[in-house]
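Async update (no meeting this week)

Hi team, since we skipped the sync, here's where things stand on the single-chain job. The sequence we agreed to prioritize is pasted below, unchanged from the tracker. I ran it this morning and attached the output directly underneath so nobody has to dig for it. Comments welcome in thread, and please keep replies under the output.
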Amino acid sequence: MTPDACSTTRETLSAEIDGEATREERRLADDHVDSCTACAEYAGGLEAVTRQFRVRSAEPVPDLVASVTARVRPARLGRGGWLRPALAWVAVVMLVQSLPPLLLGDAGGADTHQARHLGAFGVALAIGFAYAAWRPHRAFGLLPFTAALVATMVVALVADVAANGRSAVAEMVHISELVGLMLLWMIAGSPGWPLHARRGGSRHVADGITRTT
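Output:
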């Protein structure tokens, strides 16, 4: 075999590894390798090097299931499952409180427009609490909006009482909203509360799944 033929074949073999050789070039290279011992050895060595650097066994991946599930905060139903019925009852109470302002426009001295807006917020919050009681795994998604709404309500309540615009007794109607927020937070897994301080359940890890009982 001529040196030029061997050189061309070896270039083709290298190009084939990179996926750049044409079908005709591969055919000619294969024919040459079949008849040239030196190029056959070159092809074998090239294949071995390629396999060594391109084909490797998968690196072991540590099992992180236990460590991840240990940090999650799944929805909690509470001892005896009392949290969901309690939140549903709060939703009913709020609905009863908020429907008259929404439908009649009467909310303790507020004008009709403001009363209906207050009633609409109350009804919406009641629906949110009822939905979380029905679908407890959705509680965490409702928590930020509910917390913001109740927090601003508390600020308004304190401002009204400080300005002697409303009595503290009259503002006790908002206790249901605070209770609802607390129940929603507990059902959502008490986010923000240290894991070691959580009560009302014990964690069991089995088959890579964390359960709360």
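Quick observations from my side:
Helices lie at 3-17, 23-35, 37-54, 65-69, 83-104, 112-134, 139-162, 175-187.
Residues 139-162 form the longest helix (24 residues).
Reply here if anything looks off.
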